[in-house]
Automatic annotation (TrEMBL):
Superkingdom classification of source: Bacteria
Composition-biased stretches (Polar residues): 199-214
Bias type Basic residues, positions: 177-187
Region (Disordered): 177-214
Name of the protein in question: Uncharacterized protein
């Protein structure tokens, strides 16, 4: 795994985990949080494990959510709590967790549908094209294994969340037009896919635009 890829994945994992810790602390101190008075981390990990054993249906919708699905769906709200003092995104994800714990994943599925027009977080075609062309997929199983271990170590609450986009490039047969070893914060050439006009959707769901609080 290149040092650039490792640094990128490490930063992402640490950001998600630190924001989740802040979310849990906020719930402990905020009576309006749907998980107030509970061990938020324990509730979350128990829910993920339960849904990975048996996906939980979203009532009224023809879809069921696994533990992986709720991780991907929850990340944007965990990272970006929304405007103070209400922090509506943290309020929403807390309600969705409590609802899923009671056997209904609709709190996640409805928000995903409203935002992404899909019952689950989609893999955006434009993103896949540019990521694969820029060499952001895994170079082989060994890199995947190391990335998986890194995520499990740095972000136990959201381990595996960052693996799905690189895995989407498995089988990509064309050589990278922008080798990662050459890519820097400035001066990195755009991929040929971008030069040909392939872009991500103009209305970008929060899954592609999340930012941590300063």
């Amino acid at each position: 795994m290149s040092s650039w890829a490792t640094t990128r994945r490490r930063h992402r994992a640490e950001t998600i985990e630190s924001q989740f810790a802040r979310f849990a602390a906020w719930c402990r101190s905020t009576a309006s949080c749907a998980l107030h008075g509970r061990d938020v981390g324990g509730v979350w990990r128990g829910l993920v494990a339960a849904e990975d054993r048996s996906a939980i249906p979203a009532k009224g919708l023809r879809v069921a959510y696994s533990g992986f699905d709720i991780k991907v769906a929850a990340v944007p709200d965990v990272i970006s709590p929304g405007a103070a003092p209400d922090l509506p995104n943290w309020q929403r994800v807390a309600r969705a967790i409590a609802q899923a714990e009671a056997g209904d994943a609709a709190g996640f599925a409805v928000h995903v549908r409203e935002t992404a027009k899909s019952l689950k977080v989609p893999s955006f075609r434009g993103m896949n094209v540019t990521h694969c062309a820029d060499g952001l997929g895994f170079t082989g199983y060994e890199e995947y294994r190391k990335a998986k271990e890194l995520g499990e170590r740095l972000s136990p609450n959201f381990a595996g969340n960052e693996l799905w986009h690189p895995l989407g490039c498995v089988g990509w047969r064309h050589p990278s037009r922008t080798p990662r070893a050459r890519c820097r914060r400035t001066g990195c050439r755009p991929s040929r896919a971008r030069e040909r006009g392939a872009t991500t959707p103009t209305s970008r769901p929060s899954w592609t635009a999340s930012r941590a609080r300063p």
